């Protein structure tokens, strides 16, 4: 279940969702003493619309190991999916202090950018997603968020650059599949979501294949 969850994050293959979720539900009772597994499973739960449950699992992970940076990344994601934007940034700051430059740095930059976006802080959102882009210029999650944030921030060329890179990395993608992936990374109740999705669609339509 752990390996499958990590593969799901990397691939974004929506067809894996039912099987991944079933396997996580089976594995969770056996993972209650494993803070790393709890952190990974919680990210999947949050992306499946179960952010409150995900937050409880990350709180358990932090209790088990308060020095595990990835637990705070997972906590920050669960919080951003619940619209707890400032709390999310505080969790991500804790990860940055504990594990600067670790493998969770790019996802942490995405979650930080999303928290600032949802809080209406566009300059900070763009700065955060640029940090993620500097870490990994081919990471689909970074490119998805950078496209919309750059467009909203008035940085049209950066938005088009991200869209071109995204299409190279996801040659079979459609605007709808991209928006589905984005929906799994943002608080559905956030008033920032409609404007972000409209900006993403605009860049999609205006960027040649």
Q: How does the major sheet shape up?
A: none
Amount of beta strand: under 5%
One letter per element, helices H and strands E, the order comes to HHHHHHHHHHHH
Q: What structural class do helix, strand and pairing data support?
A: mainly alpha
By DSSP (H or I, 4+ residues per run), the number of helices equals 12
What proportion of the residues is helical, as a percent range? over 70%
Distance between the termini: 37 Å
Gyration radius, to the nearest Å? 16 Å
Average pLDDT value?
91
Inertia-based shape: globular
What is the element layout, followed by pairings?
Elements: H1 2-11, H2 17-27, H3 35-47, H4 51-64, H5 69-81, H6 85-98, H7 105-118, H8 122-135, H9 140-152, H10 156-169, H11 175-183, H12 192-206
Helix pairs in contact: 1-3, 3-4, 3-5, 4-5, 5-6, 5-7, 6-7, 7-8, 7-9, 8-9, 9-10, 9-12, 11-12
Describe this entry's structure for a reader:
By secondary structure, the chain is mainly α. It has twelve helices and no strands. 74% of the residues lie in helices and 0% in strands. Helix 8 runs antiparallel to helix 9. The mean pLDDT is 91.
């Amino acid at each position: 279940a752990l390996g499958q969850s990590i593969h799901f994050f990397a691939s974004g293959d929506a067809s894996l969702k039912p099987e991944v979720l079933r396997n996580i539900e089976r594995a969770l009772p056996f993972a209650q003493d494993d803070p790393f597994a709890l952190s990974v499973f919680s990210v999947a739960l949050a992306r499946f619309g179960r952010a409150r449950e995900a937050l409880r699992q990350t709180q358990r992970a932090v209790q088990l190991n308060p020095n595990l940076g990835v637990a705070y990344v997972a906590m920050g994601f669960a919080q951003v999916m619940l619209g707890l934007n400032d709390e999310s940034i505080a969790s991500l700051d804790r990860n940055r202090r504990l594990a600067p430059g670790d493998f969770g740095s790019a996802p942490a930059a995405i979650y930080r950018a999303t928290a600032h976006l949802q809080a209406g802080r566009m300059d900070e959102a763009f700065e955060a997603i640029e940090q993620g882009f500097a870490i990994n210029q081919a990471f689909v999650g970074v490119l998805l968020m950078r496209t919309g944030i750059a467009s909203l921030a008035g940085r049209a060329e950066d938005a088009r650059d991200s869209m071109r890179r995204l299409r190279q990395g996801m040659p079979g993608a459609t605007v709808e599949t991209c928006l589905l992936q984005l929906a799994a990374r943002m608080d559905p109740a956030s008033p920032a979501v409609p404007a972000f999705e409209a900006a993403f669609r605009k860049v999609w339509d205006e960027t040649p294949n």
